[in-house]
Design a protein that fits this description.
- By secondary structure, the protein is mainly α.
- It has 2 domains: 3-160, no CATH class; 181-236.
- Helices cover 78% and strands 0% of the residues.
- Helix 8 (112-122) runs parallel beside helix 10 (168-180) and helix 11 (184-203) runs antiparallel to helix 12 (208-235).
- The longest helix has 28 residues, at 208-235.
- Keywords: Cell membrane, Membrane, Transmembrane, Transmembrane helix, Transport.
- Belongs to the AzlC family.
- It is a multi-pass membrane protein.
Length: 236
């Protein structure tokens, strides 16, 4: 392996380890819940390997019945993952140099954590295929392994909240938000996203608040950013 690629892999491993640790209790819990619905460890492994979307999998397990409501499961998964359209669009200019095949592979492994970490990195240096796919591969292997393990022993752990593990995701994403801070434009986007998400969560059942918050943040950033830049240039 060339030295520069080795450095990219090492930096990716350092960046992704906290996220990999944070998802362990939730992987075990998802596996345990899936087992309670009648899924075998092999079926859980296949679901995690092909879907690779924790929030969508939790929702799917929650509404899982026999026979499985495939249409409802499909629509729900698409709805809750609509944010990936925005995430992919924001990363597209940064990974254009990958080529079609590598880009598709990198985007398959893209989750909230890898997207945020790549956005952080893009502010300092170029996002490389080695960097992005290493992070994605670590989280993919980690998620498949611990959801599968959870199908066998996760029930023994019980509710992560009893250990305080339920705050792990919140702490992780708060840290990621701090790393993504780019001034007032970031604050406006975060505030708009949070307000709209809370309103939708209170008014509508289902995961509509996830997509609504993401769209609201994107629109707020797109509107405020150019105006703020224009005002700054005029003041100089």
């Amino acid at each position: 392996m060339p030295p520069d690629r080795r450095d990219e892999v090492r930096e990716a491993l350092v960046a992704v380890v906290p996220a990999a640790i944070a998802v362990i209790p939730f992987g075990l819990l998802l596996g345990a819940l899936a087992a309670q619905k009648g899924l075998s460890p092999l079926e859980v492994a296949l679901m995690s390997a092909t879907v690779f979307a924790g929030s969508a999998q939790f929702i799917a397990i929650d509404i899982w019945t026999e026979p499985a409501p495939w249409l409802l499961l499909t629509v729900t998964a698409l709805l809750i993952n609509l944010r990936h359209l925005l995430m992919g669009a924001s990363l597209a200019p940064k990974i254009r140099s990958f080529g079609t095949g590598p880009s598709l592979l990198a985007l398959f492994t893209m989750v909230d954590e890898t997207w945020a970490l790549c956005e952080q990195r893009s502010a300092r240096k170029q996002v490389t295929f080695s960097y992005m796919v290493t992070m994605g591969a670590v989280l993919w292997v980690n998620w498949v392994a611990f959801t599968t393990l959870g199908a066998g022993i996760g029930a023994l752990i019980g509710d992560p909240s009893s250990y305080g593990f339920d705050f792990a995701f919140s702490a992780l994403f708060l840290t990621l938000i701090v790393g993504l801070w780019r001034g007032s434009r970031t604050g406006v986007a975060i505030a708009a996203s949070a307000v709209v998400a809370v309103i939708f969560h209170l008014l509508f059942d289902g995961p509509w608040y996830i997509a609504a918050g993401g769209v609201a943040g994107a629109i707020a950033g797109a509107i405020y950013g150019p105006r703020h830049e224009a005002a700054t240039e005029a003041a100089q």
